[in-house]
Amino acid sequence: MTTLGFIYNIGIQFTGFVLKCMAPFNEKIKRGVAGRSKTFQILESELKETDAILWFHCASLGEYEQGLPVFEKLRAHYKNHKIVLSFFSPSGYEIRKNAPIADVVVYLPLDTKKNARKFLDLVHPELTIFVKYDIWPHFLNEIKKRRLRAILISAAFRKNQIYFKPYGQLFKTALFSFEHIFTQNEASKHLLASINYHNTTVSGDTRFDRVTNQLKIDNTLDFVETFKDDNLCVVVGSSWPEDDALFIEFINTHQPTDVKFIIAPHNIKSTQIKNLTSKLNTKTMLYSEKEGKKLEDYNVLVIDTIGLLSKIYSYADIAYVGGAMGTTGLHNTLEPAVFGVPIIIGKNHEKFPEAQALIDNGGMFSVKNFNQFNAVLYQLIEHSDLCKDYGSQNKEFINKNSGAVIQILDYLRI
User: Fold this and answer.
1) At the topology level of CATH, where does 37-202 sit?
2) What is the gyration radius of the CA atoms in the chain, in angstroms?
3) Which of 300, 308, 296, 321 is closest to 219 using CA atoms?
4) Is the pTM of this model over 0.85?
5) Number of H helices, E strands in the chain
6) How far apart, in whole angstroms, are the C-alpha atoms of residue 41 and residue 56?
7) What DSSP letter does each residue of 143-190 carry, written as one string?
8) Is the distance from CB of 393 to CB of 193 less than 8 angstroms?
């Protein structure tokens, strides 16, 4: 065993111990620890040795949404197979534990050799699909040892990752367990080539196909139509306090009467919602309190529930996507882009290649502070023609980059 391998194994064991110690004090960690303890029991009760099985693994909810266009096609094609869907994060598992594309949904056990062997003994997948990242060496090395098929889709790599370091052999070897890797961009393909991995296809990001599918469904929301009331509408999606501060100052400073704001915070706990609404000096309504109210009389609508944002973006004239003003991570900018909406984001987007691509394409703007934010938003509000032009750039960008799913299915001969 290499030194890195020894350190990794000790680290995994230590992580398991720490998580159990922290579980009583943190609800999210508690759910993960409890869920992982039941994984093998669930698999033993739901799967048979004679079952034909596909295994899809996602780190969390974002990766699930990214892989869903592929998962749906495979579900339709392999009608007689059972599908096992695994998550590492509670935020993915808890929201998608009843996902219709899967027969069994579980937490992925911690990456030990023993867990990997037991998991694959029970699942014995004909095909395994990992999405984007979450590369677990023992699971993947066991897959390779058993000569099972595995592919990685929508992969995006950066040169500072451990795979491309002299001491990263353990993780580098894990990548070679995939028979093929579909990357989001050419840069990722070149990085893989630098470690002599060449079974690659630049297919793009499957999220483009995912958001394109949003156009095929009915996005009508009567309460939004009533609230918007033919006014210009700014939608703030998945915002954090750092993002909200920009809008609070803008709204309180300008007091626009012909512009409506819909704010969908990432954190919808009552304390967070109360903190946001208490700072707004304008007529503000919560989604949960909308019944019996004249929505058209309000200037700000705060969405204190989940699952509506993708449809709400269809009503936006301008969108702001949260996460990049702070350090929590930029949320999905492709969701508003598909509706032909100009987008504003914060400054910390370097880990999101699609964000820089949208900026370079001319339809998205990154701001560092309130003064920049104020200037960009005011320009978009005041110049409707420019607003439409910028939005068109985003829509064209989505159309141009769709098609990753087709390339993956072609490789799988489906």
Assistant:
1) Rossmann fold (3.40.50)
2) 23
3) 308
4) no
5) 19, 14
6) 19
7) HHHTT-EEEEEEE---TTSGGGSTT-HHHHHHHTTSSEEEESSHHHHH
8) no
Q: Are 238 and 323 in contact (CB under 8 A)?
A: yes
CA-CA distances (angstroms) from residue 155 to 55, 133, 385, 387? 17, 6, 37, 32
d(CA 3, CA 190): 28
b/e burial code for range 44-64 (CB count within 10 A of at least 16 → b): eeebeeebebbbbbbbbbbbb
Nearest by Cα to 321 from 381, 400, 265: 265
- How many whole angstroms separate alpha carbon 46 and alpha carbon 408? 29
User: How many residues in the chain?
Assistant: 414
CB of 273 closer than 8 Å to CB of 286: yes
* pLDDT of the chain, 414 residues: tens digit per residue: 677 788 999 999 999 999 999 999 999 999 999 999 999 999 999 999 999 999 999 999 889 999 999 999 999 999 999 999 999 999 899 989 999 999 999 999 999 999 999 999 999 999 999 999 899 999 999 999 999 999 999 999 999 999 999 999 999 999 999 999 999 999 999 999 999 999 999 999 999 998 998 999 999 999 999 999 999 999 999 999 999 999 999 999 988 889 999 999 999 999 999 999 999 999 999 999 999 999 999 999 999 998 899 999 999 999 999 999 999 999 999 999 999 999 999 999 988 888 999 999 999 999 999 999 999 999 999 999 999 999 999 999 999 999 999 999 999 988
Span(s) in the chain for CATH 3.40.50.2000: 222-399
Tokens of 173: 């070897």
Q: Rounded CA gap, 381 and 259, in Å?
A: 8
The ranges of the chain annotated as CATH 3.40.50.11720 are 37-202
Q: Read out DSSP for 34-74? A: HHHHTHHHHHHHH--TT--EEEEEESSHHHHHHHHHHHHHH
Residue 152: phi, psi to the nearest 5?
A: -115, 130
User: Tokens 């393909």 identify what position?
Assistant: 189
With beta carbons less than 8 A apart as the criterion, state whether 232 and 256 touch.
no
CATH code for residues 222-399:
3.40.50.2000
